Amino acid sequence: MFLALLLQATFPAFAMNPSDAVQAACSAFADHTLSEIRRGYEVLGPHLLGRKNITFFGSSRLKENHPSYHLAAQISEQLSKSGWNIISGGGPGMMEAVSKGAKQGVGKSIGISIELPYPETPNDNLDIEIKFADYPIRKHFMITYSQAFIVMPGGYGTLDELFEVVTLKLSKKISDVPIFLVGKDEYWDPILSGLRSMIGSKFPTVSEKDFAFFQFVNEFEEIAPFFR
User: Fold this and answer.
1) pTM of the predicted protein model
2) Strands of the 85-88 sheet, one edge to the other
């Protein structure tokens, strides 16, 4: 009933019949979703399919004066010089840093951005940029073409992206790709200690093997052997 009232308020033409309104809204949503997915494959496929691609996740709030910004740029630059395409969310902060680094090498800088309710322009260091309206579709394309994930410090969005990848690995929906968590001591240890505390506790919802997915690193030299 609530959905019907909401649709009537938003789309007055649907007020004639709530069931028709719901059906029309569902059909429109399905058409929109399929159109977005098709557009994503058409734009990104020619540049990423069958190539070496790495996705970076990280905060938009950590700017150029933060040490993690420069570390992200350095890691991205070295990987790009080795021929890896760099995929990011295309925005500011960590995303800008890895895009800058990518431009110093031969790999392409790919920005997969999101429509937000406030202004946020893509950074100026992208070779290819595509924007989606919905987070699930955006995450799908940030994950689909990638052979590895590098996760810099971030907030809710970064953790959401990380846990999505982990869930897909646990359920074997994606291949056994490496996940590198950058900033072990200062950032990741405090966050993951809460999850580790659940092992064998009253709420045993995670196990020790769930942490085997992660490679904890603090600098590029610890990542480099995986990409030689």
Assistant:
1) 0.88
2) 128-132, 109-114, 85-88, 53-57, 148-151, 179-182, 214-217
